[in-house]
């Protein structure tokens, strides 16, 4: 995208001109949809995120400061944050899940591991690597959530979120009852 077109879009946004949104959608829509999809991993949700993002962009257009960030960076952040919020919202409303909110009480080990029971370690590669790392640290390396946070240099809140999402992804592979039984075997 040319700098002239970007500047024109910014001017239109600051003037609250509807043409700005058409140009934004035309030139950034597909890319921002891709950003949303990468986070939510669902086409329908990604479309919702894109729509919500464009609404936020329109409402917050007076807050954009070209001296602080390029237009795409600003659009990217709004879309990514909207996608994360949407994912959290959907996750909160989803079926009841294994709740492990008390982080430091679980000291997980592998002493009683029965390899024939299930191939969880082999199936970790079916989920996103950021969740694999957390599940591996907690269930196979015996770390507490705080220890995993320190060792992996990831904030504790992020460890908790990734654990929750990682367990949900594994639940999709195994089903909730079988997954719960297997994970309880590790404790």
Model description:
The structure is a single chain. With 187 residues, the protein is an all-alpha fold. It folds into two domains: 3-93, RNA polymerase sigma factor, region 2, helix turn helix motif (Rna Polymerase Sigma Factor, Chain: A), CATH 1.10.1740; 103-186, Winged helix-like DNA-binding domain superfamily/Winged helix DNA-binding domain (Arc Repressor Mutant, subunit A, Orthogonal Bundle), CATH 1.10.10. It contains nine helices and no strands. The chain has helices at 3-14, 19-40, 43-59, 71-93, 120-123, 129-140, 145-152, 156-174, 176-186. Helix 6 (129-140) crosses helix 8, helix 7 crosses helix 8 and helix 8 (156-174) packs across helix 9 (176-186). It starts with a helix and ends with a helix. The relative contact order is 0.10. Residues 100-118 have low confidence and may be disordered. Residues 24-89, 124-172 form the RNA polymerase sigma-70 region domain. Keywords: DNA-binding, Sigma factor, Transcription, Transcription regulation. Belongs to the sigma-70 factor family. ECF subfamily. It comes from Arenibacter antarcticus.
């Amino acid at each position: 995208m040319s700098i002239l077109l970007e500047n024109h879009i910014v001017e239109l946004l600051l003037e609250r001109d509807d043409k700005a949104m058409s140009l934004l959608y035309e030139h950034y829509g597909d890319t921002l949809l891709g950003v949303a999809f990468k986070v939510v991993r669902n086409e329908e949700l990604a479309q919702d995120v894109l729509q919500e993002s464009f609404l936020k962009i329109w409402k917050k257009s007076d807050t954009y400061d070209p001296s602080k960030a390029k237009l795409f960076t600003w659009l990217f952040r709004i879309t990514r944050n909207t996608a994360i919020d949407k994912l959290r919202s959907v996750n909160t409303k989803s079926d009841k899940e294994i709740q492990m909110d008390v982080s430091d009480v679980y000291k997980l080990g592998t002493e009683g591991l029965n390899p024939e029971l299930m191939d969880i370690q082999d199936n970790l590669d079916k989920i996103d690597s950021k969740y694999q790392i957390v599940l591996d640290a907690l269930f196979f390396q015996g770390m507490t959530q705080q220890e995993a946070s320190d060792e992996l240099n990831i904030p504790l809140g992020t460890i908790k979120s990734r654990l929750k999402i990682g367990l949900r992804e594994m639940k999709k592979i195994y089903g909730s009852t079988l997954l719960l039984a297997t994970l309880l075997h590790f404790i």
